[in-house]
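Suppose you are handed only these lines of text.
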Amino acid sequence: MIVLHIDSSASGPASASRQLSAVAIETLRAGHENVQVKYRDLAVNPPAHLSGELLSALRPSPANPSEPGRNIAAELTLTETLIDELLRADVLVLGVPMYNFSIPSPLKAWIDRVAQPGRTFRYTDKGPVGLAAGKKALIISSRGGAIAGTPMEAAVDHQEAYLKTVLRFIGITDVKLVRAEGLNLGADTRKQAIDRALDELKLLEQACA
Ligand SMILES: Cc1cc2nc3c(=O)[nH]c(=O)nc-3n(C[C@H](O)[C@H](O)[C@H](O)COP(=O)(O)O)c2cc1C
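From them, the structure of the protein bound to flavin mononucleotide can be written out as follows.
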């Protein structure tokens, strides 16, 4: 089983999503014989955001012809590597804090690299079709506040809902979520949230078997 493990929190060792995603990987390793893990730390090595030059190289058009320079060639190589890592994986484990109601920007930059027509989705006359089907994904969500199940959730969650939309768009529909929220609401609330998430991760083997 090939696992793509992605962390995106900028908080280093203090990060709850990093702690929990590491436990998820340990659990997968404990439950399966041959687990190969490819790790991407997007906070430490963030892919550059799309520039006009990179976008025209990725998606050339008559109106926007590609004339890649040397730096863009390296960015195209990185893009291919990131797509290849995604397509090779059987399971994705994504550590994702909520930042300003959304996801950390390096993770958005990663999505902008891997969501490429002809590679991870294609347009058809019936709409877009995902090309990365058959994978499982586990989202480890961390949040300072607590919004799940509240009336405001739909209006302010551009993190979990967005990620599920992107994964579905590229064909990944088997998505599990482990959430630790209320992490900045006091030490007790934080501990309870992390303990609850750790308990949920114990069920991971069933989730990703
Ligand atoms: C830049 C930034 C923006 C944040 N925005 C939100 C937010 O919109 N909603 C929220 O509930 N928590 C927000 N938080 C709190 C984090 O979600 C919380 O600290 C969480 O634990 C971060 O995950 P981590 O521990 O894995 O780094 C924000 C934190 C940072 C650093």
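What can we learn from it? Residues 2-208 form a domain with the Rossmann fold fold (CATH 3.40.50.360). Strands lie at 2-7, 36-41, 91-97, 121-124, 127-130, 136-142, 174-180.
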